[in-house]
Amino acid sequence: MFNWETFEPDEYSRGETPSFVDLTERSYITATGHATDHTADESFLSLARAAAAVAKTISGGPETDIPVKNFKGYVPYPVQAVWQPAGDGEDFKIWIKQPLFIDEAAFNAAIKKTDLAIFLPTRFTLNILLKALKFRQFQTGR
Hints:
The protein has 142 residues and is of the alpha+beta class. The protein contains 4 helices and 4 strands, in the order αβαββααβ. The chain has helices at 4-7, 42-59, 104-113, 126-132, and strands at 26-35, 80-86, 89-98, 134-138. Strands 2-3-1-4 form a 4-stranded antiparallel β-sheet. A hairpin with a 2-residue loop joins strand 2 and strand 3 (89-98). Helix 2 crosses helix 3. It starts with a helix and ends with a strand.
């Protein structure tokens, strides 16, 4: 089983000294939103939990009835967020890396199989939550 903690420690370092990592092609589950209470904000927590649940469903592959060509078992990646001050709070973008063999079809299948209604904050509808969650692929970067 592939474990990102073992094979990609530099990319997910929790050290005090920042480091630059050359990034290869990669895929992510993403979600964007606005928070007035940073990581305690209901909108942020709901989107982070929903994105993590979709990622966990995908990581089950055939066991969760997600069609993935050349599936290999793996430990789901951690939730990451980028914050930018904006108005009465902060805009955020949630990122959860996905292995390269995961594609948008697997993401869409996992969206249908994951009970996202349990993650709805009081000011969201299921439609808003579904529009916030995206699958993104990038070729290279730093």
